[in-house]
């Protein structure tokens, strides 16, 4: 298995025992979601924005309006960092200090470029939609040229990365374990509820199989 080389930029210092630099494990965290947090500097101020994404090999793709100040800013700087995080549980300890959460998170560092080709932009938008709901793109109408012209797609190449995972129980002070205080884990998961049709034609239609499949797999 390959690993990202550790450096001052990506090395995990706090909770280093929970760190991993394994490329496959980091990709598994990335592929388990479709929302990331992108950091950038705008007029000297640090800002973080949530964005939909998709991954292909060592590339992350995000998109937005051609007037999107975050995308324009990171393209100008030619680099950024991206974080993906999944919350898996609340860790309730016997003291407030030792409360924590179980999670999987990955932080990526890399360079960027603008995707120019309409064909490539369309393919990437297909990947992003299908990362949200598998097989959904083929049920949609084709993109209009004017829509593509207003859409900025950015390719982010992962140059280095690290991940942290906490998947254990409570870690209290030794003298606290005999206290009559409840402690434990509240598992957390994101679930899908039954699909709700939009007004108009969808109300008269059967829900597509791929959407019901998604619901069944994630309810």
UniProtKB/TrEMBL annotation:
Name-wise, this protein is Pyridoxamine 5'-phosphate oxidase family protein
Protein source organism: Polaribacter haliotis
The opening ranks of the lineage are: Bacteria, Pseudomonadati, Bacteroidota, Flavobacteriia, Flavobacteriales
